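Justification of resources, computational component.

The compute hours requested in this renewal are based largely on the per-chain cost of generating structure records like the one below. Each record pairs the submitted sequence with a full structure-token output. That output is archived, and it is also reused by downstream analysis tasks.
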Amino acid sequence: MEEPNLSTEDRQLHTVLRKYWHVPILVLIVVVLFLAGAWYGQRKVDSQTSAGGRRILYYVDPMNPAHTSPEPGLAPCGMKMEPVYADEGGQAAAASLPSGSVKISPEKQQIIGVRLAPVAKSPWNYTLRTVGKVAADETRTYRINAFSDGFIMRVFDNSTGSLVRRDEPLATYYSKDLFTALQTYYYAVYAIENLPEGQQLPASQKHFLEAQKRAAELNLMNLGLSIRQMKDLVRSKEITQEIFINAPVTSFVLVRNVSPGQKIVNGEELYRLADLSRVWIQADLFKDEAKYVRPGEKVKVNLAGQDQKYTATVTEILPEFDPATLTVKVRLEMDNPGFVLRPGMFVDVEFPIKMPPTVNIPVDAILDSGLKKTVFVDRGQGFFEPRRVKTGWRLGERAEIIEGLAPGERIVVSGNFLIDSESRMKLAAAGMFGEVTKDPVCGLKVDASKAKAAGLQGTYKNQTYYFCCEECKEHFDKNPGRYAAKPGGSEKTASGAAPARKQEAQAVKAKDPVCGHEVDQAQAQAAGLTSAYQEKTYYFCSYSCNKQFDKDPEHYLHQGAQAGSGGASSPVVAQTAKDPVCGLPVATGPAKQAGRTSEYQDKLYYFDTAGCKARFDKDPQYYLSGSKEATLPYLLPETPTSPDLLLRLRRESIRAIPPGKGQSLVEGAPQGTQVKPAPPQTPPMQHPPGQTMPPPPQAPPTPHLQPPAPSSPPAFQAPPAAPAPQPQASPSSPQAQTSPPSPSPSGAGGHRHD
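The structure output for this chain reads:
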């Protein structure tokens, strides 16, 4: 076909159209794709913003919470990424849950088979089943031995396993001593039975004949003759050569060691018989199960393949342990009607166990790792909290919970392995790979392994505590008893910071109700030295005061009320305590300010001098033992307890010490030479009232001098070193003496402490 005649321009246009015909199609495809992408993006935004009215924040890997993505898709494990919504409920609840808590949607719970059950306090009846073995009653087992040497003459129809009746003959044997014993027996019987009629024998002669007959009977019995056979011989008056062996009771032959013509030896076992009308059953129980079985209980016993059940009684739990089976033996006794049970047979034993009402849960709900036991508690809104528990008894499908759960809570009893896996992955994502504990100071959750590696741990009373930072550790080291007594730490502030890290507020003073010192409330609160009583907070200067107040708050509050009843200007009576070394009463406030205190076995002791404190620190048990050697040398007369008077007397006694004589023997001793103080050998430098101070030993009187007159004072009486008057001191008080002190004083108090 020929083309129509076209102009040159038409031909060029036609050529261009034939050459670039696909360009419009490509443009159209691009426009369509652009419109489709815009529509898909708008749909995605709409789905994120209006999918059920919830906005999606991101997507998370269901098997690894640390892996998140802003776009949906498949996780590396092959599962579909799950959305996390902005308005998802329970975020505040999740923040308050302990570490390791997870949230599982209802759909996911149904997929993994999560099943919940309530915790209740109820009794538990359990039937403990085990296997027992029948054995012959040892108290009903008889051994028949040979009474003398001889030979077996006859053996009757019996063999091992045969049932023999009572007094049934088993065998006969011959003894060479039988003939002589029978003659003696017959003579004694004849002498008694053939006395002339009317003849009366003397009593001594008649007694002799009776004794001769009894001796002959015993001789025959020693040869093995029974009473029945002897009566037959007396009746027949025959000389026999056979001694019968009879069955003592109706029993079964367990062992037979005789045959005709066999030679026997005295003491050799011939037969062993067992009365099976009542048998033993030896049952094997594990040591954790045997403690629930008590003697006297009734148990059920039945043979395998039989419907009939028997009743047995627990008689004894044997003190035997089988290391191969890790079991103990429990002995049962039961009647054996019809001799159904034979020794060596196995039976099924059922022990009924009744436990009192306790908190018990299914065993499947407990995840036991060997070091700890964990259950998952339902906290609502799909949250599950891992909680450590302590278990008691475990019988069958139930286990007792001693600590960790309360009645009314709901726990996971099925599917907890998958929940535990997700909980572990969540901890790993949070950077916690070990055991999660709580800081006792601030209450934050701490990874025990990381805190241990960083050295943020402390020990108090054989218990280890872990801390989140150095500040919390320092606060704990200063006062461990305070925080150890209240685990969980102080309450946090609204900003989440612990009180130890808050900025110091304006100093507000408070009065310690125990010792009366002024205390900075902010510092006491930061150190945890506070106690709340009757809706009022009290502050303390030390842990010792705080502890004493907690023991008896009414005592110290009553003292404070009495002190303040006289008006605001009434003085506060200082607390006093007894020095355990020298026995002097000590004002607790000044002693504490001077550092003359020591804590031993959670009790604070106060000292009059630094020397007393040093001696106490070297061996506190010696001075607290109460022995006469430790207390007798330091018994002092009654001393005024006024704090002002004590301080004034103390200053005057210090002034009275000559220069160079105030060095304490204890403080001045070389390092390493001080050993455990022995009981003082010299009497204390204390004199009863009415006696004068002896002259100083450094100035003794010479022998050739003329002694002074009796009415005159001692010639070498030293003048008082301190002329200050002492109007308040009692004449009998040792502090009121103005004479020089002992050449070897201890401390600065003027008292001698050897």
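The radius of gyration is 51 Å. The CA atoms of residues 225 and 243 lie 6 Å apart.
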